[in-house]
Amino acid sequence: MFLIFLGAPGVGKGTQADIFAKELGIPHISTGDILREAVARGTELGLVAKGYMEKGELVPDEIVIGIIQERISEPDCKKGCIFDGFPRTVTQAAALDKVLAKSNKKIDYVINIEVDEEEIVRRLSGRRSCAKCGRIYHLLYSPPVKDGICNDCGGELYQRDDDREEVIRNRLRVYNQETVPLISYYRKKSVLRNVEGKNSVEEVTQEIERVLKTG
Ligand code: AP5
After folding, report:
1. 3-state secondary structure of 165
2. Alpha carbon of residue 131 to chain centroid
3. 109-125 per-residue burial string, b: 16 or more CB within 10 A, e: under 16
4. pLDDT tens-digit profile of 9-65?
5. CA nearest 20: which of 117, 106, 91, 111?
6. Annotated catalytic residue: which of 36, 128, 135, 171?
7. Distance of CA 126 to CAs 121, 132, 141, 142, 197, Å?
8. How far does the centroid of ligand 1 lie from the alpha carbon of residue 8, in Å?
9. Which of 110, 117, 141, 175 counts the most CB atoms within 10 A of its CB?
């Protein structure tokens, strides 16, 4: 099954994609995670991506499409995967359709998670991520047992550079301009499913499960 988790920054795409990747036994592909890892390792890709990411701008389409083409050609994606944070422009969506069509595959569902802007700012400013395993926490909604330490692996928790309020506002502006057109792109293909994201993590998971069961 090939799924896309769509939605503004901070709606819970990564949180839910992690849960469903485990549930469905398919990889969770987050372009944001791939780019952050490249930045942390100081690779050529990381050096280019850093300038865009710290301002909350999109990394150019050709770079991100190249990353995805390479990633989905790996054997673990044969039966499907969950895309989180990709595609983000109509150009990226069309490129993804083309790559999948080459092996007679297509996107099954696009789960569009909806949350209002003030809640998004609250979620992102309280987010902490594990530097070692990537698990996502929230200082109020889902805090770790021990302050600053990951429950799963003992790694240190950090705050993302782009989770400062002025960068969050720019990410939302870029989302409205570049990514919102994907909603009608996928609605026309009859694969779009809207999910209310303001409820608890467990309730959002249940709603997505229902959508995947009933279609
Ligand atoms: P990326 O990493 O993709 O960030 P994003 O899309 O802005 O999304 P986030 O990761 O911020 O949020 P999320 O929806 O995954 O929420 P999460 O589950 O963490 O992209 C970062 C940058 O990389 C971009 O700005 C761009 O520069 C570049 N980039 C990436 N992909 C690109 C592409 N395709 N093209 C071009 N450039 C690209 O949850 C957020 C918080 O809320 C957490 O603390 C969580 O614990 C909490 N939470 C989650 N669900 C709930 C709930 N139901 N109730 C209460 N709290 C909740």
Report:
1. helix
2. 17
3. bbbbbebeeeebbebbe
4. 999 999 999 999 999 999 999 999 999 999 999 999 999 999 999 999 999 999 999
5. 111
6. 171
7. 9, 19, 9, 10, 17
8. 8
9. 110
Q: Which domains does the chain have, with CATH numbers?
A: 2-116+177-214 (3.40.50.300)
- Global confidence as pTM: 0.95
* DSSP state string for 185-206: HHHHTT-EEEEE-SS-HHHHHH
Q: Answer yes or no: are the C-beta atoms of 141 and 122 closer than 8 Å.
A: no
Is the minimum distance from the CB of 32 to ligand 1 under 6 angstroms? yes
The region, left, alpha or beta by phi > 0 then psi within -120 to 50, assigned to residue 80 is left
Q: Which of 36, 123, 127, 128 is catalytic?
A: 127
With a 6 A CB cut-off, is 200 part of the ligand 1 pocket?
yes
DSSP H stretches of helix in 56-105: 61-72, 90-102
CA-to-CA separations, 132 to 26, 91, 95, 135, in angstroms, rounded? 21, 33, 32, 8
Q: Whose CA is nearest to atom 27 of ligand 1?
A: 53
The stretch 117-124 carries a mean pLDDT of: 93
SS3 112: strand
- For ligand 1, whether the C-beta of 134 sits within 6 Å is no
142 lines ligand 1 (CB under 6 A): yes
Residue 127 annotated to the active site: yes
The 10s digit of each residue's pLDDT in 132-155 is: 999 999 999 999 999 999 999 999
